[in-house]
Design brief:
14 helices; alpha/beta; 6-stranded parallel sheet; 43% helix
Length: 391
Amino acid sequence: MKRINVALITDSFPPVVDGVSRCVVNYAHTLTAEKYGDCVVITQRTPGEMYYHYPFPVLGFPSMGLPRLDYRAGYPIVPFLINSLKKMDIDLIHAHSPFTSMVIARQIRRKLRTPIVFTQHTKWEYDIKRTVRTGPLRRAVEALVYDNIEAADDVWTVSRGTALHMRNRGFSGDYIVMENGTDFPQGEADAALTREVCRTHGLSGNRPVLLFVGRMYWYKNIRLILDALTLLRARGLEFDMLMVGDGTDLPDMRALTAAKSLNDCVHFTGKISDREKLRAIYTLSTLLVFPSVYDNAPLVIREAAACRCPALVIRGSSSSEILEEGQTGFCTEETPEDVADAVAGALSNPEWLARVANGAAEHVYLPWPKVVARAAERYHEVLERCRSQQA
């Protein structure tokens, strides 16, 4: 395959830890490591953060903090990027956000005549609602965002549910589904590190470990988890629950956990950036409880599958698309009673749980090299199509 030089543009990049930032990092690492071509990441600058430790260049643009969110917003007027990318002989732009990233991508395309691939990752309307309080302004922002998406030369979604959501919001263009992968190797983490993680978080080792990994926002359905855990405790079921992640709603979640008298079994770990420690957490966990209907293609389900930890999700959600119910994962309705019943049912049948764990490891696990190989082929198709249209 001929080499292709790609600029990945994102509003989310480390030190932010979320699905989009990990996706962009893995695209960049894999494109570079597999020698598909040269790669540069363009992202908003975070004060005090240096980007020299990556095996690919990272160019930053100015940004400011957003109220009520853990994210930053970038300033899209960046003429200096044009000259930098021109020197790098960039062939294609891949934008991973419809906000500043797409505004910048459209500027670059006008100057360099490079096609734009856009990936829709999240239901960003939730974040607009948290940041923009007035209805008319919120609708204006949404209209601008969809104008940006429609302007892309090729639109990718990370799941069928993502595409349906876009259709329901007014998107009428063509798209393809390009799934996300995981950077975890297949297999369990080091046993010594797993024991160390157990000690760090006060796990007894005698009780099943339930797990949630993600940003600590209420719209991730974390209240539903806590309500279900309360029901399980009332039934006499013993367990530990690890809540991995950080976010602005975390203090309120801790308060509700205390109010429900769950402090002895629910452990908030905060953000864990060390990937090996996170692998150890997945390895020691019995079941990933992930009832979010906000997420479109959560990386955590693939990560858990790599470590033989099956996922419990809401039936009909985007998260459930990659699972075969009762074979590679568990599905339930979106009520505390149903979630509690599903958790209790899985834990009460160890043989079934083990079969589902094996099924997840075999069929849900998807490494990034397979994903990026398909993406690279699509890059070439988009590039050839756009060049023929310009001829």
